[in-house]
Amino acid sequence: MKKVKRRNRGGHFLAHPEEAIAVFKAVRQVVPDEVPITVKLRRAWDDTEDMTAAFHEVFDAIYDLGAAWATVHCRTVEQRYKGPGRWSFLTELRAKHPDRLFFGSGDIWTAEDVFAMLDVTGVTGVSVARGCIGNPWIFRQCRQMMAGHAPAEPTLAEQRDVLLEHLRLSTELHGERGASKMMRKFGIRFAKHHPEGHRVKADFIACDSRAAWHRVLEAHYPTDQSIIPT
Ligand SMILES: Cc1cc2nc3c(=O)[nH]c(=O)nc-3n(C[C@H](O)[C@H](O)[C@H](O)COP(=O)(O)O)c2cc1C
Q1: Ligand 1 centre and the CA of 215: distance in Å?
Q2: Are 165 and 121 in a shared domain?
Q3: Which of 38, 105, 117, 133 has the most ligand 1 atoms within 8 A of CB, as the residue to mutate?
Q4: How high is the pLDDT of residue 1?
Q5: 130 pocket-lining for ligand 1 (C-beta < 6 Å)
Q6: Looking at the predicted complex, does its ipTM rise above 0.95?
Q7: Which pLDDT tens digit goes with each residue over 35-69?
Q8: For position 197, which CATH number holds?
Q9: Ligand 1 atom at shortest distance from the alpha carbon of 75
Q10: 48, 119, 148, 213: which has the fewest C-beta neighbours closer than 10 Å?
Q11: What is the domain range of residue 31?
Q12: What is the pLDDT of residues 69-103, one digit of tens each?
Protein backbone atom coordinates (compact mmCIF):
# COMPACT_ATOMS: atom_id res chain seq x y z
CA MET A 1 0.00 0.00 0.00
CA LYS A 2 2.77 2.43 0.98
CA LYS A 3 4.57 1.62 -2.26
CA VAL A 4 1.39 2.07 -4.29
CA LYS A 5 0.60 5.40 -2.62
CA ARG A 6 4.12 6.81 -2.64
CA ARG A 7 4.83 6.10 -6.26
CA ASN A 8 1.31 6.60 -7.60
CA ARG A 9 1.35 3.11 -9.02
CA GLY A 10 -1.66 1.60 -10.77
CA GLY A 11 -3.85 1.09 -7.70
CA HIS A 12 -3.53 4.77 -6.78
CA PHE A 13 -5.80 5.76 -9.65
CA LEU A 14 -8.71 3.79 -8.23
CA ALA A 15 -8.82 6.32 -5.40
CA HIS A 16 -8.60 9.18 -7.94
CA PRO A 17 -10.97 8.32 -10.77
CA GLU A 18 -10.61 11.70 -12.47
CA GLU A 19 -6.84 11.09 -12.82
CA ALA A 20 -7.40 7.57 -14.13
CA ILE A 21 -9.78 8.87 -16.77
CA ALA A 22 -7.38 11.68 -17.74
CA VAL A 23 -4.56 9.14 -18.21
CA PHE A 24 -6.77 6.93 -20.36
CA LYS A 25 -7.85 9.92 -22.48
CA ALA A 26 -4.25 11.02 -22.98
CA VAL A 27 -3.19 7.53 -24.05
CA ARG A 28 -6.15 7.18 -26.40
CA GLN A 29 -5.26 10.49 -28.04
CA VAL A 30 -1.71 9.48 -28.92
CA VAL A 31 -2.26 5.82 -29.78
CA PRO A 32 -3.47 5.23 -33.36
CA ASP A 33 -7.17 4.29 -33.59
CA GLU A 34 -6.42 0.86 -35.01
CA VAL A 35 -4.42 -0.09 -31.90
CA PRO A 36 -6.72 -1.41 -29.18
CA ILE A 37 -6.16 -0.17 -25.65
CA THR A 38 -6.93 -2.36 -22.67
CA VAL A 39 -6.99 -1.54 -18.99
CA LYS A 40 -6.18 -3.61 -15.92
CA LEU A 41 -7.72 -2.61 -12.61
CA ARG A 42 -8.59 -4.00 -9.21
CA ARG A 43 -12.21 -4.06 -8.11
CA ALA A 44 -11.74 -0.89 -5.96
CA TRP A 45 -9.29 0.86 -3.68
CA ASP A 46 -11.18 -0.48 -0.64
CA ASP A 47 -14.65 -1.65 0.31
CA THR A 48 -16.18 1.75 1.08
CA GLU A 49 -19.16 2.96 -0.96
CA ASP A 50 -17.18 5.90 -2.33
CA MET A 51 -14.42 3.68 -3.62
CA THR A 52 -16.86 1.20 -5.15
CA ALA A 53 -18.46 4.15 -6.95
CA ALA A 54 -15.01 5.29 -8.07
CA PHE A 55 -14.36 1.88 -9.64
CA HIS A 56 -17.60 2.09 -11.62
CA GLU A 57 -16.83 5.66 -12.68
CA VAL A 58 -13.50 4.53 -14.15
CA PHE A 59 -14.88 1.30 -15.57
CA ASP A 60 -17.73 3.09 -17.38
CA ALA A 61 -15.56 5.96 -18.61
CA ILE A 62 -12.89 3.80 -20.22
CA TYR A 63 -15.48 1.92 -22.30
CA ASP A 64 -17.14 5.23 -23.27
CA LEU A 65 -13.71 6.45 -24.35
CA GLY A 66 -13.01 3.40 -26.47
CA ALA A 67 -11.24 0.78 -24.35
CA ALA A 68 -11.25 -2.60 -26.10
CA TRP A 69 -11.61 -4.38 -22.79
CA ALA A 70 -10.69 -4.25 -19.12
CA THR A 71 -9.30 -6.98 -16.91
CA VAL A 72 -10.62 -6.81 -13.37
CA HIS A 73 -8.64 -8.32 -10.50
CA CYS A 74 -11.35 -9.05 -7.95
CA ARG A 75 -9.38 -7.93 -4.88
CA THR A 76 -9.20 -4.38 -3.53
CA VAL A 77 -5.90 -2.49 -3.49
CA GLU A 78 -6.10 -2.34 0.29
CA GLN A 79 -6.52 -6.12 0.43
CA ARG A 80 -3.28 -6.68 -1.51
CA TYR A 81 -3.13 -10.50 -1.73
CA LYS A 82 -4.74 -11.20 1.64
CA GLY A 83 -7.67 -13.57 1.45
CA PRO A 84 -9.50 -14.77 -1.61
CA GLY A 85 -10.58 -12.64 -4.53
CA ARG A 86 -14.30 -11.89 -4.69
CA TRP A 87 -15.56 -13.70 -7.77
CA SER A 88 -19.10 -12.55 -6.91
CA PHE A 89 -17.97 -9.03 -7.79
CA LEU A 90 -17.30 -10.23 -11.33
CA THR A 91 -20.69 -11.95 -11.46
CA GLU A 92 -22.36 -8.68 -10.40
CA LEU A 93 -20.32 -6.72 -12.92
CA ARG A 94 -21.48 -9.08 -15.67
CA ALA A 95 -25.12 -8.66 -14.58
CA LYS A 96 -24.70 -4.88 -14.70
CA HIS A 97 -23.02 -4.96 -18.13
CA PRO A 98 -24.30 -8.00 -20.03
CA ASP A 99 -22.68 -6.94 -23.33
CA ARG A 100 -19.31 -5.64 -22.20
CA LEU A 101 -16.17 -7.55 -23.03
CA PHE A 102 -14.12 -7.91 -19.86
CA PHE A 103 -11.70 -10.37 -18.31
CA GLY A 104 -11.64 -11.68 -14.77
CA SER A 105 -8.53 -12.15 -12.63
CA GLY A 106 -8.04 -13.63 -9.19
CA ASP A 107 -7.20 -17.04 -7.74
CA ILE A 108 -6.68 -18.89 -11.00
CA TRP A 109 -4.36 -21.75 -10.05
CA THR A 110 -5.35 -24.50 -12.49
CA ALA A 111 -6.88 -24.95 -15.93
CA GLU A 112 -10.06 -26.07 -14.15
CA ASP A 113 -10.18 -22.71 -12.34
CA VAL A 114 -10.22 -20.91 -15.69
CA PHE A 115 -13.41 -22.69 -16.73
CA ALA A 116 -14.90 -22.39 -13.25
CA MET A 117 -14.47 -18.61 -13.37
CA LEU A 118 -16.05 -18.47 -16.83
CA ASP A 119 -19.00 -20.56 -15.62
CA VAL A 120 -19.52 -18.89 -12.26
CA THR A 121 -19.04 -15.25 -13.21
CA GLY A 122 -19.84 -15.03 -16.91
CA VAL A 123 -16.70 -12.99 -17.68
CA THR A 124 -15.69 -12.97 -21.34
CA GLY A 125 -12.20 -14.24 -20.64
CA VAL A 126 -9.89 -15.13 -17.80
CA SER A 127 -6.43 -13.81 -17.02
CA VAL A 128 -3.92 -16.28 -15.56
CA ALA A 129 -1.32 -14.79 -13.19
CA ARG A 130 0.28 -16.69 -10.29
CA GLY A 131 -1.17 -19.90 -11.68
CA CYS A 132 1.31 -19.94 -14.57
CA ILE A 133 4.38 -19.39 -12.39
CA GLY A 134 5.97 -22.84 -12.41
CA ASN A 135 3.15 -24.10 -14.63
CA PRO A 136 3.42 -22.57 -18.09
CA TRP A 137 1.55 -25.66 -19.29
CA ILE A 138 -1.69 -24.27 -17.87
CA PHE A 139 -2.47 -22.69 -21.25
CA ARG A 140 -1.98 -25.98 -23.08
CA GLN A 141 -4.11 -27.67 -20.44
CA CYS A 142 -6.89 -25.15 -21.14
CA ARG A 143 -6.69 -25.94 -24.84
CA GLN A 144 -6.87 -29.66 -24.02
CA MET A 145 -9.99 -29.09 -21.93
CA MET A 146 -11.55 -26.99 -24.70
CA ALA A 147 -10.99 -29.94 -27.04
CA GLY A 148 -12.83 -32.17 -24.57
CA HIS A 149 -9.76 -33.88 -23.07
CA ALA A 150 -8.53 -34.06 -19.50
CA PRO A 151 -5.66 -31.65 -18.82
CA ALA A 152 -2.36 -33.57 -19.05
CA GLU A 153 0.59 -32.97 -16.75
CA PRO A 154 3.86 -32.09 -18.50
CA THR A 155 6.40 -34.89 -18.89
CA LEU A 156 9.60 -34.66 -16.85
CA ALA A 157 11.49 -34.03 -20.10
CA GLU A 158 9.23 -31.07 -20.88
CA GLN A 159 9.72 -29.72 -17.37
CA ARG A 160 13.47 -30.09 -17.73
CA ASP A 161 13.50 -28.23 -21.06
CA VAL A 162 11.48 -25.34 -19.65
CA LEU A 163 13.61 -25.15 -16.49
CA LEU A 164 16.79 -25.11 -18.59
CA GLU A 165 15.43 -22.34 -20.81
CA HIS A 166 14.28 -20.38 -17.76
CA LEU A 167 17.74 -20.75 -16.20
CA ARG A 168 19.40 -19.65 -19.45
CA LEU A 169 17.24 -16.53 -19.76
CA SER A 170 17.60 -15.70 -16.08
CA THR A 171 21.40 -16.02 -16.37
CA GLU A 172 21.36 -13.66 -19.35
CA LEU A 173 19.47 -11.10 -17.28
CA HIS A 174 20.94 -11.55 -13.80
CA GLY A 175 24.30 -13.25 -14.28
CA GLU A 176 25.16 -16.71 -12.94
CA ARG A 177 25.09 -15.92 -9.22
CA GLY A 178 21.91 -13.86 -9.41
CA ALA A 179 20.13 -16.40 -11.58
CA SER A 180 21.16 -19.34 -9.39
CA LYS A 181 19.45 -17.66 -6.44
CA MET A 182 16.54 -16.14 -8.36
CA MET A 183 15.66 -19.51 -9.88
CA ARG A 184 15.11 -21.09 -6.45
CA LYS A 185 11.65 -19.58 -6.01
CA PHE A 186 10.65 -20.76 -9.46
CA GLY A 187 12.18 -24.19 -8.91
CA ILE A 188 9.99 -24.56 -5.81
CA ARG A 189 6.91 -23.97 -7.95
CA PHE A 190 8.09 -26.30 -10.72
CA ALA A 191 8.89 -29.03 -8.19
CA LYS A 192 5.15 -29.38 -7.49
CA HIS A 193 4.84 -31.20 -10.81
CA HIS A 194 7.51 -33.74 -9.90
CA PRO A 195 6.55 -37.08 -8.32
CA GLU A 196 9.36 -36.58 -5.77
CA GLY A 197 8.59 -32.90 -5.31
CA HIS A 198 9.91 -32.58 -1.76
CA ARG A 199 13.36 -33.89 -2.63
CA VAL A 200 13.55 -31.88 -5.82
CA LYS A 201 12.49 -28.71 -4.01
CA ALA A 202 15.17 -29.23 -1.34
CA ASP A 203 17.81 -29.78 -4.02
CA PHE A 204 16.74 -26.65 -5.94
CA ILE A 205 16.92 -24.55 -2.77
CA ALA A 206 20.53 -25.67 -2.24
CA CYS A 207 21.61 -24.63 -5.76
CA ASP A 208 24.15 -21.81 -5.83
CA SER A 209 25.63 -22.10 -9.32
CA ARG A 210 24.67 -22.98 -12.86
CA ALA A 211 26.57 -26.25 -12.55
CA ALA A 212 24.55 -27.15 -9.45
CA TRP A 213 21.30 -26.47 -11.32
CA HIS A 214 22.43 -28.66 -14.17
CA ARG A 215 23.38 -31.45 -11.75
CA VAL A 216 19.97 -31.36 -10.05
CA LEU A 217 18.15 -31.33 -13.38
CA GLU A 218 20.32 -34.21 -14.57
CA ALA A 219 19.52 -36.19 -11.42
CA HIS A 220 15.75 -35.66 -11.29
CA TYR A 221 14.57 -34.96 -14.82
CA PRO A 222 15.29 -37.77 -17.29
CA THR A 223 15.08 -36.80 -20.94
CA ASP A 224 12.89 -39.81 -21.80
CA GLN A 225 9.75 -38.12 -23.18
CA SER A 226 7.50 -40.98 -22.13
CA ILE A 227 7.81 -40.37 -18.39
CA ILE A 228 4.73 -38.54 -17.20
CA PRO A 229 4.57 -37.75 -13.49
CA THR A 230 1.78 -39.48 -11.60
C1 LIG B 1 4.72 -11.47 -10.12
C2 LIG B 1 3.45 -10.73 -10.48
C3 LIG B 1 3.51 -9.64 -11.32
C4 LIG B 1 2.35 -8.94 -11.66
N5 LIG B 1 2.45 -7.87 -12.50
C6 LIG B 1 1.33 -7.19 -12.84
C7 LIG B 1 1.42 -6.07 -13.72
O8 LIG B 1 2.49 -5.68 -14.17
N9 LIG B 1 0.27 -5.44 -14.04
C10 LIG B 1 -0.94 -5.83 -13.55
O11 LIG B 1 -1.95 -5.22 -13.87
N12 LIG B 1 -1.05 -6.88 -12.71
C13 LIG B 1 0.05 -7.56 -12.35
N14 LIG B 1 -0.05 -8.62 -11.49
C15 LIG B 1 -1.38 -9.00 -10.96
C16 LIG B 1 -1.94 -10.17 -11.73
O17 LIG B 1 -2.12 -9.87 -13.09
C18 LIG B 1 -3.29 -10.66 -11.17
O19 LIG B 1 -4.29 -9.69 -11.35
C20 LIG B 1 -3.23 -11.03 -9.70
O21 LIG B 1 -2.06 -11.77 -9.39
C22 LIG B 1 -4.47 -11.84 -9.29
O23 LIG B 1 -4.53 -13.05 -9.98
P24 LIG B 1 -4.11 -14.45 -9.27
O25 LIG B 1 -4.78 -14.45 -7.89
O26 LIG B 1 -4.69 -15.51 -10.19
O27 LIG B 1 -2.63 -14.47 -9.17
C28 LIG B 1 1.09 -9.34 -11.13
C29 LIG B 1 1.03 -10.44 -10.28
C30 LIG B 1 2.19 -11.14 -9.94
C31 LIG B 1 2.09 -12.32 -9.00
Answers
A1: 32
A2: no
A3: 105
A4: 53
A5: yes
A6: yes
A7: 999 999 999 999 999 999 999 999 999 999 999 99
A8: 1.10.1200
A9: 22
A10: 148
A11: 2-146
A12: 999 999 999 999 999 999 999 999 999 999 999 99
